[in-house]
Write a structure and sequence with these properties.
With 102 residues, this protein is α+β, with helices and mostly antiparallel strands. It has a single domain (2-101), classed as Alpha-Beta Plaits (2-Layer Sandwich). The chain contains 3 helices and 4 strands, in the order E-H-E-E-H-E-H. The protein has a 4-stranded antiparallel beta sheet.
């Protein structure tokens, strides 16, 4: 069953307050990954897929800032792993929207 993970990768000591280049480079690793879906948000990235695939792609994303010269990277991961029924990004949003409409 798929999991949904939220990941934030922050390179430290880059000499610039802008991180969009690092985010774009991390997303290239996502574009190359098979078997996952993802959504960029203003503060993080949400990834959906089988747990092993999600963890593998997050590891690759974590390495991207180091390859670009960062000497320190802080990565925060939250994983929603529900096993009683299928889980999807859209399903979670739809559930809240339905309750808002009640």
């Amino acid at each position: 069953m798929p999991v949904i993970a939220e990941v934030t990768i922050i390179p430290l000591g880059t000499g610039s307050p802008s991180l969009s280049r690092y985010v774009a480079d991390c997303h290239k690793a996502l574009q190359e990954a098979e078997g996952i879906r993802y959504q960029l948000t203003p503060m993080s990235t949400v990834i959906e897929g089988e747990l092993d695939l999600v963890v593998d792609v997050i590891r690759k994303m974590h390495e991207v800032p180091f390859a670009a010269g960062a000497l320190r990277v802080s990565t925060t991961i939250r994983i929603d792993d529900r096993r009683d029924k299928p889980l999807s990004m859209e399903g979670k949003v739809r559930s809240v929207e339905q309750k808002l409409a009640e």
